[in-house]
Write a structure and sequence with these properties.
The chain has 206 residues and is an alpha+beta fold. It folds into 2 domains: 87 residues, no CATH class; 73 residues. Helix content is 46%, strand content 13%. It contains 6 helices and 6 strands; from the N terminus they run αββββββααααα. The strands form 3 sheets. It has a two-stranded antiparallel ribbon with strand order 1-2. A two-stranded antiparallel sheet has the order 3-4. The longest helix is centred in the C-terminal third of the chain and has 47 residues. The N terminus is likely disordered.
């Protein structure tokens, strides 16, 4: 386990170190003057977006020589308990990993290309920073709309199947809705009237 003093050192240096939890390592690249406290991170089990101040933190060493350690975050106690039980997130039905592997959520889309890690050092420019922030908001909006559309299209198949099953069930059990003798008197009356008309026509011909 890593000493907490080292964590506080990384957290409160003037460089504002950026925490890259998508790969599970501390990345020592300096960030802007904006505080890191409101960075959105992914928990180890549920993979839902949360703020890093709202999570339980767990650090584990990789090596004893270099300062390399993996950081796990848990959004709630349920997530932490499942992690300690060594459960596979892809086999637990309420996790994002399961929903994506089962095809219940959008996984392949161009909007996910913006979240890829790029190890390219860039010089800080205020205009570039502002444009990037605005583009991130726009990309998130587009991604939410596409995810909602994907889920609605997926649910349409289920609604169509339910409709077909309901129609077949009504056809099979039509006697429960309409009695077998319902309308029989009306049919008999129509037959009698038709027979009388035929008799009258035959009498006129003779």
């Amino acid at each position: 386990m890593v000493h907490l003093g080292l964590l506080h050192f990384f957290h409160f240096t003037s460089c504002r170190f950026k925490l890259s939890l998508r790969q599970g390592l501390y990345n020592l690249t300096p960030q802007s003057s904006t505080s890191y406290r409101y960075v959105t991170v992914l928990p180890a089990i549920t993979s839902v977006d949360i703020q890093n101040v709202c999570a339980v933190l767990l650090c584990r060493d990789f090596t004893s020589v270099f300062l390399l350690f993996k950081v796990f975050r848990f959004c709630k106690s349920k997530c932490h308990k499942n992690f300690k039980k060594k459960r596979n997130p892809r086999k637990v039905r309420w996790t994002k990993a399961f929903r994506k592997s089962a095809g219940k959520e959008l996984t392949v889309d161009n909007s996910f290309e913006f979240e890829k890690r790029r190890n390219e050092p860039l010089k800080y420019q205020r205009e570039l920073w502002n444009k990037t922030v605005e583009s991130i908001k726009r990309v998130e909006e587009i991604k939410r709309k596409r995810q909602a559309r994907f889920i609605m299209n997926r649910l349409k198949k289920g609604k169509q199947l339910e409709k077909e099953e309901a129609i077949s069930e009504v056809k099979k059990n039509i006697h429960l809705i309409r009695a077998p003798h319902a309308g029989k008197a009306k049919m008999m009356e129509d037959k009698m009237v038709q027979k009388l008309q035929e008799d009258v026509e035959m009498g006129d011909d003779q």
